[in-house]
Amino acid sequence: MLAIIISSLEDSKAANITKISLSGKTTIADFMVVASGTSRRHVSSTADHACRKLKESGYGKISVEGQKQCDWVLIDSGDVIVHLFRPEIRDLYALEKMWSANLSDDEGKVAG
């Protein structure tokens, strides 16, 4: 599931894709992925693309929040939670700082 999400975000040209392992931090999911879109439209289309790819791959139980405004869209696919932001909103909430104080070698920035 994580690979499908990362691939989808890269295909959609999301920026600053970061994966964070939630192992030992919470039981809500295994991973969190944070990425930026360049505009509300880009955030919306990136979220749509990720949801479509997950459903095509057999992951049908997905919850999406925030698509009305598209400043911050959250996709909860169960094992992976995806946060898509406009850059200034991402900077404001700084989720990476809150969740990834001690990133391991296999975590962190993925692409662009």
Counting helices, strands and paired strands, the structural category is alpha+beta
Helix content: 25-40%
Total DSSP E strands: 6
Task: Give the uncertain stretches in residue-range form.
Answer: none
Number of helices: 4
Q: What spatial form do the alpha-carbon principal axes imply?
A: globular
Q: If strands are numbered along the chain, what order do they take across the biggest sheet?
A: 3-4-5-2-1-6
CATH hierarchy, class: Alpha Beta
Characterize the structure shown.
The chain has helices at residues 2-11, 40-56, 87-93, 95-99, and strands at 15-21, 31-36, 63-65, 72-76, 80-85, 108-111. By secondary structure, the chain is α+β, with helices and mostly antiparallel strands. Strand 3 (63-65) and strand 4 (72-76) form a beta hairpin. Helix 1 crosses helix 2. The longest helix is centred in the middle third of the chain and has 17 residues, at 40-56. The two termini are 20 Å apart.
